[in-house]
Automatic annotation (TrEMBL):
Cited InterPro entries: HAD-like_sf, HAD-SF_hydro_IIA, HAD_sf
Coiled-coil spans in chain: none
Taxonomy, superkingdom: Eukaryota
Species for this entry: Dioszegia hungarica
Protein name per its UniProtKB record: HAD-like domain-containing protein
Pfam families found in the cross-reference section: Hydrolase_6, Hydrolase_like
GO terms for cellular component: cytoplasm
Residues of the signal peptide: none
GO molecular function, one term: phosphatase activity
């Protein structure tokens, strides 16, 4: 390893690790990922998994890791869906959920409300939930238009919220019966469509927002107490924009890109190149430990 790359990772004391595309792609771990996580544990290096995956609940994300031979506790996985849930709870919202059945488990504690009592919309990466009919209902909720024939005339007059875990334009998708593995349309274009139609600006709660990383660092410090400076935390991901974007630079965190998942050659070029690049997550761990 070159001296410059070694300098770029020197002093790292904790990791905020992306999941899909970095530790695994779909149901397949990236090369030696399970070994790398075990190595971090043996070396007592603090880490937290940070995921923008909106297809599944935290519980199912932990199970997916277990199926790949990677052990993790629920509190070691912070998701953008969890950040959505916290916003809903803090503001006592009654959201209309465009989410997968697994992702909806994060909101199972919410009371059942009439269709016309929704005061917010949450979108997730689940194509069957993003049909024209579902998106049009979301549009009507956000515009204050009727969505029930027996609309409640006394429903609360509250400015509706459009909430999205992230705005990724595309993702690395596994092979299906129709298509080989490759980049596929992400959640971002659907969020932009509703923003355009309603004139509202979506509230983004996942990576790469500053608030998400502040919450992640707070969680990690609860799990691994200790004194650490901002530059001693490193964020690891395969997406230069949505894993290593604005919030990381605002907080002064180290940014490490891996050439797996949705990474494509040239992705690191731009105004804010990463601090370091590794072929895969396991190579980074080998360099740190």
């Amino acid at each position: 390893m070159g001296d410059e790359k070694m300098r770029s990772i020197k002093g790292i004391k904790a990791l905020l690790i992306d999941l899909n595309g970095t530790v695994h792609v779909g149901n397949d771990p990236t090369p030696r990922a399970a070994e790398a996580i075990a190595k971090l544990r043996r070396a007592h290096i603090p880490f937290l998994f940070c995921s923008n995956n909106t297809k599944e609940s935290t519980k199912d994300a932990v199970q997916r890791l277990a199926d790949m031979g990677i052990s993790a506790e629920t509190e070691e996985v912070m998701t953008s869906l969890g950040a959505c849930r916290q916003l809903v709870d803090d503001q006592k919202l009654r959201p209309y959920l465009l989410l997968s059945p697994s992702a909806k488990e994060e909101f199972a504690h919410l009371p059942v409300v009439r269709p016309d009592e929704h005061d917010s919309v949450i979108l997730g990466q689940h194509p069957p939930s993003l049909s024209y009919e579902a998106l049009n209902k979301a549009f009507r909720i956000l515009k204050g238009e009727p969505i029930a024939h027996d609309q409640n005339p006394n429903r609360p007059d509250r400015k509706p919220l459009l909430i999205a875990p992230h705005t990724s334009s595309f993702l690395q998708a596994p092979a299906t019966s129709d298509l080989p593995a490759g980049l596929s349309l992400g959640l971002g274009p659907f969020v932009k469509a509703l923003e355009s139609a309603t004139g509202l600006e979506a509230t983004i709660v996942g990576k790469p927002t500053r608030r998400f990383f502040e919450m992640a660092i707070e969680r990690l410090n609860e799990l691994y107490p200790g004194e650490r400076e901002a530059g001693e935390y490193a964020v690891v991901g395969d997406d230069i924009v949505n894993d290593l974007g604005a919030g990381t630079t605002e907080l002064g965190l180290r940014r490490i890109l891996v050439r797996t998942g949705k990474y494509r050659p040239g992705a690191e070029a731009g105004e804010r190149p990463p601090d370091s690049i590794f072929d895969k997550f396991a190579d980074l761990v080998d360099a740190i430990v």
